[in-house]
Amino acid sequence: MEVNVSKFGTLTLFTGCMASGKSALLLNRVAYLRTLGRSVAVSMHASSHRDRLHAFSRAGQQEYALRFKDPSDLLRFTRNGEILAIDEIQDLEMDFAPVLAQLFDRGFPLVAAGRDTDFRGIVFPIMDWLRARATEHTILTAVCTTCFGPATRSQRLVRGEPAHWDSSIREQGPPLETYEPRCVEHHVVPR
Predict the structure, then answer these.
(1) What angle do CA 117, 77, 53 make, to 5 degrees?
(2) To bridge 3 with a disulfide, which of 28, 33, 35, 81 should be the other Cys (CB 3.0-4.6 Å)?
(3) β-strands 11-16, 136-140: how paired?
């Protein structure tokens, strides 16, 4: 079914720390949009969860996700009337911003979910850019694994110990590296 897109694109953005429910909300929104008869392409950057073919949430939902590497790949994923959903959007570098802006200018709706800050607590540059353009932005928290208070940070652990400040921003993945939600008080980044 071909649906005319609006004059201006929209961006629904779900952000928060690790285990805050971002992907669950994205997948719920995708399911809802499909009940309205909309076509939705779910996607993730090729570097996100390299061992999985699906966008998934800890609540159990999952959806096959198209993988992309380059900004031009996003243009190939979009058709007239289609909504583009991107999970783990924090993995995009700033060279994706012009293509996302082009999609907005062409009227494409976008639904995205991702961590707002890296393991140090610093905002990912693409997330700053997206937040400034969001038509709907939901900020989520998790439960701190140390004190059970509200968690807003993603604690990176390498071999069970907090990752050092000088560690690479890009994850290496399990089994040596894991993440857990932490509150500001229990978020540790040794320098």
Answers:
(1) 65
(2) 81
(3) parallel
Location of structure tokens 């999985």: 52
Per-residue pLDDT tens digits for 86-105? 999 999 999 999 999 999 88
DSSP helix/strand/coil, 32:
helix
* Of 63, 88, 171, 180, catalytic: 88
Residues pairing with 110 in the sheet? 11, 84
Predicted structure pTM score: 0.91
For residue 27, give the nearest of 131, 127, 152, 111 by alpha carbon.
Answer: 111
Identify whether 88 is a catalytic site residue: yes
Instruction: Report CA-CA distances (Å) from 110 to 8, 56, 85, 114.
Output: 11, 18, 6, 13
Which runs of consecutive H residues, i.e. helices, occur in 78-163?
97-105, 125-133
Phi–psi pair at 184, nearest 5 degrees: -60, -40
What domains can be seen in the chain, in order of their start residue? 11-140 (3.40.50.300)
C-alpha to C-alpha distance for 137 and 10, rounded to whole angstroms: 11
Residue 77: closest CA among 116, 186, 38, 86 = 86
- Mean pLDDT score across all residues of the chain: 90
Please state the length of the chain.
191
86: its two tokens: 């991107």
Both tokens assigned to 149: 């208070």
